[in-house]
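dumping this here before i forget
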Amino acid sequence: MRTGTAKLEIMKSAFALFAAFCFLCVVHVVSASGQTKPVLLVMTSHDKLGDTGKPTGFFLGELTHPLEVFEKADVPTEFASIKGGEPPVDGLELEDPVNSRYWNDKTFREKLSATKKLSDIDPADYAGVFFVGGHGTMWDFPDDAAVQMIARELYEAGSPVGAVCHGPVALVNVKLSDGKYLIEGKEVSAFTNEEEEKVGLTKVVPFLLATKMEARGAKHLPAPDFEKKVVASGNLVTGQNPASAAGVAQEMVELLQAKD
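structure:
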């Protein structure tokens, strides 16, 4: 009897340990599943710089530097553009080691050549959105219905919405469910009027981004020309120029981690 009782107790203990192990496995799976939604990186599909005859597009470093930050933080990403397919690239700058590493990576180039069409995107599938800069955005981001819908839905869900350089032009016409502009009353950063003048494009772009953001009720906070500036206003994160791209992504990572 004692031997039988001892065996029974051992079996009960083993079962309890097995049950605890299964519970921990379930908890781990649930926790891991909370990390699987990717951040959507959105690029322009516009390839002409006004009437200059010069090409434009998204700025490569404003994609690669944030991408490196997301990857180091184990945050999955997906690419989208206004029209889908391969977006036009500007600012190749392959002397930049981050640009060079990604540009020469077959997997990256294949991913870039097959971006999703933004209007096919369901924002519920994503943990956040990052609007990549580049002068091309000034023509196709502001009035795009999918840009506005995705920015609004993710912002109102409390998910991080980020943009850098000219990328914040995606936000200038976004209205929230209450009818107010998303950036109204927010502190923001974006390519400054002075920087636009320095690159000689004030008469080429459809409007000056910083001026437009202020007209929408935002408080634009500039840094000296071409120096890093990142501004977080709740779950909205914006950056001034290419030097700010990685910093915007880092702020977004921190918001994602805090949300988890």
